[in-house]
TrEMBL record:
Residues 8-255 form the ABC transporter domain. Keywords: ATP-binding, Nucleotide-binding, Transport. It comes from Goodfellowiella coeruleoviolacea. SMART domains: AAA. It comes from the Bacteria. This is Oligopeptide/dipeptide transporter, C-terminal region. PROSITE patterns: ABC_TRANSPORTER_1 (PS00211), ABC_TRANSPORTER_2 (PS50893). GO terms for biological process: peptide transport; transmembrane transport. GO terms for molecular function: ATP binding; ATP hydrolysis activity. Belongs to the ABC transporter superfamily.
Amino acid sequence: MTGDQPLIEVTDVHRTYRRPRVSLTRPGRAVAALRGVSFSVTAGQRFGIVGESGSGKSTLIRLLAGLDQPTEGTVRFRGQRVSGRPERQLGFLRRELQVVFQDPMGSLDPRMRVRDIIAEPLVAQGHPDTAGRVAELLEAVGLPQEAAGRFPHQFSGGQRQRVSIARALAPRPSVLVADEPVSALDVSVRAQILNLLADLVERYALTLVFVSHDLSVVRHVCDTVAVLRAGELVELGPVDRVYRAPEHPYTRELLAAVPTLRGALARFTTRTAEEEQP
């Protein structure tokens, strides 16, 4: 792949769901989750996807990760088609793209110790030295080595998200997809996790796809932003330009409606904050 070729290509993607039949005489209604969405992400880019609940963000992430299929259009990764392929043909994507979900408690097996949670994708891919990789990742996400022997319920929400990030990084992906990774956290912890993500993306030379309902959060970690409204891409551009001079009325509404993290981020990045202790 050349440096100019997009890493991820989304071309005229539509996704329509049909709601269940409500009666024998009334068929289920078709609901358009995505309508003609097109964009590309280049290697090393920090690409934000913003929109309110119901805008199609989660559907789009599922399509990028090969967890769902578009009704129309194509999704490609490194030039290879993702859409339309069965799971057994998506090994190339599973090796390179990993997802951090919004709810770490829901995505972590409560019966597994942290070392096994982080090592699970390595074991699945046949890597021999899982212990060394787990130790490296615990250090990278700011957790002590003794955390490896504990269970998810023994950690705070912010610490569990650190475990989720470590697990996602375990197989050395080239793309990290973060789906609302800080929306359930306190403001102070949100700032820490956002800074951690930014540092890890830089450290491991990752491409980041970051999903949020808050433009101020995206501005902190992304260089490009796509704004979704009711399944349509209504604005796309450099995040600073979109933040300073939004072109679409919906983008202006988002900027006016959401609280900003700038004050909180300033407080927590200009002094040494106490890290959470497990």
